[in-house]
Structures are given as C-alpha cells and as structure tokens.
Amino acid sequence: MDNQPVITFSQYQKHFLTEKSCSEYLYNMKWPEGFQCSKCRHTAYYVIVTRNYPLYECRRCGNQTTLTVGTILEKTHTDITTWFAAIFLVVQDKQVSTAQIAKQLEISYQTAWSMVWKIRMALANPRCIASAPKFSED
Question: Where is the Transposase zinc-ribbon domain (predicted)?
Fold first, then answer.
C-alpha cells in the first residue's frame, strides 16, 4: 500500500463520486497489468453484466470473480461509493464515531458499525485492504 498515491479531499471528490470511477479504481488496483485469473493465470475474460457489479469470468477455466473478492468490500450490499467515502472519513479522522459515519453517509448504524470495524481492522493490518485507496489528511 505504500506505493499508492495519497489524495486530498478535492481529488477524492473529483475521482470517487461514481460507482464507475470507484469500480475502475478497484479494477486497476486488483489487476494493475490487466485481468489475470486467480486460478489459471489466463488473461482473457468475459464480463457478465446482468448483476449490480460486473462478474469477470475466465475464458479458459470459467473461474468467476468480482472486483471486491479478497477485499473488505467482499460480499457487501453497500454501494462502493459509500465504502470509499467511509474509508476516506475514517482515515481523515481516526476518532470519527460510527454514529457520525452513519449520519454523514445516510446509512444505518449497524451498517456503519460493520464498515468502520472492517476499515479499522484493515488499517491495523494493511494486507486486509488490498484494493482500498489510501487517503491523505490534507
């Protein structure tokens, strides 16, 4: 994670306000040199778009994956933009409360608690947050 660029709030607003921009970021973080199947390492794939988020299927072995597999966003029902905002808020203010996150992001306290817990665990163990952006305190 140390080689990830640090961004300001202004940059965050310009780059991470849409599902598409967040998905593109996750794709580039997960596969910086292009798609590679986690099972057979083949680089050709199909995109299945009948779901909320794209499902990537290897053309050789049929293995399927998503952008969030292996990250703290795996199996989430919360929008990726909400996750990115929560990550940004927690990194900006490590003392921010779950209630503040819930109110600012207009999500339930239970959802905010789960997200904040996962984010803080990932910050304590960076290998857990493989695809999450690093945000500066500027």
Answer: 18-64
